[in-house]
Amino acid sequence: MAKAKVLVVDDNVSMADALCSMLSLLDVEAVPAYGPRPALEMLDRVQPAAIFLDLNMPGVNGIEVLGFLKREPRLENVPVIVVTSDDQPETHRRVRSAGALDVIVKPATLEALERVLKIAGLV
After folding, report:
1. Which DSSP string do the residues of 46-77 spell out, in sequence order?
2. Alpha-carbon dihedral of residues 16, 21, 22, 27, nearest 10 degrees?
3. CA distance linking residue 5 with residue 18, whole number of Å
4. What predicted TM-score, i.e. pTM, was given to this entire model?
5. Looking at the predicted structure, is the pLDDT value of residue 31 above 90?
6. What's the CATH code of the domain at 62?
7. pLDDT band at residue 33, thresholds of 50, 70 and 90?
8. Domain coverage including residue 81
9. Which value, to the nearest 10 degrees, does the dihedral of the CA atoms of residues 95, 96, 101, 102 take?
10. For residues 88-107, average pLDDT
């Protein structure tokens, strides 16, 4: 079976790279996009199996990016996992109602990543 390819969107380069490294330990090919604009440009060329999306980014926030993804016919069924340091129940409700598959609270753990990858059907 081919490795799943996922997109990791985070404006913090070290956080994006760390998440990509952790995903590779789970045999998932992860490609970083360092912010919303690079992510949207990359999505013109790639069809990821899932998207890991930071919530708090300058300019366009993760909820707005999530809304765009869910309105885009080619991407509407791609599972989006929000990765955020905001562990408030209201934030979790808001992102799920916007279409996110699940929420991982930073710092992400291998166990949390494995759990959401299973939910997304990627492992």
Report:
1. ---SEEEEES--SSS-HHHHHHHHHHSTTTTT
2. 130
3. 16
4. 0.95
5. yes
6. 3.40.50.2300
7. very high
8. 4-119
9. 70
10. 95
